[in-house]
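4.2 Preliminary Data

To establish feasibility before requesting continued support, the project team ran the inverse folding procedure on a target of 264 residues. The structure was first converted into the token representation described in Section 3, and no sequence information of any kind was made available to the design step. The complete token record follows.
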């Protein structure tokens, strides 16, 4: 097992490399917070893909790529005199200690649920923390993840269903309202009500401890697998998808589903 000293030495070597790159590499030298931002978002999604795939080697690699960005931003902060990697680490350490009084103080939280509630309450109390419960939800989050985080934060202050089964009445209500607007063919109202349906389904996922983003991504990948199978089989038959009937495509689609079951 790697010792703490070995880990610190490895981190130090990474910082040394960052110093060299910033000094000698034309590309690294010209980077700014703004120029790196899009790449950081991309690296975060690549890590997410690796986690969903369960590829441990890929997770290790993508964690390294993301760590590079953290070190890079800290190096830029050091050059501008705003902060350095030590400040980043110390700030994180202090926050973790403050928000875990049940570990580092005399607080009481014997369940994960209580820990989450304490975390949100302490964030609001912090001097530079969120002014409202929902301030901590980044505006740039993808809509699906943002909806989940909004609902989760509201839950942590007690705004939630008393019984999770009640959410299905809300889902049914929102679906009914969507169908009404579809019958009226009001484009703006249809979009509004469709959003309400999605929001209620995400709420249901949260209540049943289903990660909606992971669930949708699994379905995306499943569709891609089956569609690729459909396309490959069509090419083998010397035909084109555009020339096939829906019944013919459905037959191959079901064949793909059956193949997956047999190889599972």
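Position-by-position output of the design step:
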């Amino acid at each position: 097992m790697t010792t703490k000293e070995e880990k610190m030495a490895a981190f130090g070597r990474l910082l040394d490399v960052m110093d060299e790159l910033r000094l000698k590499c034309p590309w690294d030298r010209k980077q700014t917070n703004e120029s790196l931002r899009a790449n950081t978002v991309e690296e975060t999604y690549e890590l997410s893909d690796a986690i969903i795939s369960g590829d441990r080697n890929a997770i290790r690699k993508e964690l390294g790529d993301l760590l590079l960005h953290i070190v890079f931003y800290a190096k830029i902060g050091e050059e501008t005199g705003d902060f350095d990697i030590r400040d980043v680490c110390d700030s994180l350490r202090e926050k973790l200690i403050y928000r875990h009084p049940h570990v580092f103080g005399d607080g009481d939280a014997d369940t994960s649920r209580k820990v989450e509630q304490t975390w949100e309450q302490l964030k609001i109390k912090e001097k530079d923390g969120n002014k409202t419960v929902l301030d901590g939800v980044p505006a740039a989050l993808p809509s699906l993840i943002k909806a989940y985080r909004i609902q989760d934060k509201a839950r942590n202050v007690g705004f939630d269903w008393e019984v999770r089964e009640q959410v299905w009445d809300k889902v049914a209500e929102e679906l009914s309202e969507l169908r009404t607007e579809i019958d009226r063919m009001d484009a703006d109202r249809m979009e509004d009500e469709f959003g309400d349906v999605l929001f209620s389904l995400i709420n249901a996922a949260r209540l049943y401890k289903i990660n909606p983003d992971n669930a949708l991504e699994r379905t995306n990948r499943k569709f891609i697998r089956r569609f690729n199978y459909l396309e490959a089989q069509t090419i083998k038959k010397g035909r084109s998808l555009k020339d096939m009937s829906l019944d013919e495509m459905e037959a191959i689609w079901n064949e793909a589903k059956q193949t997956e079951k047999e190889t599972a």
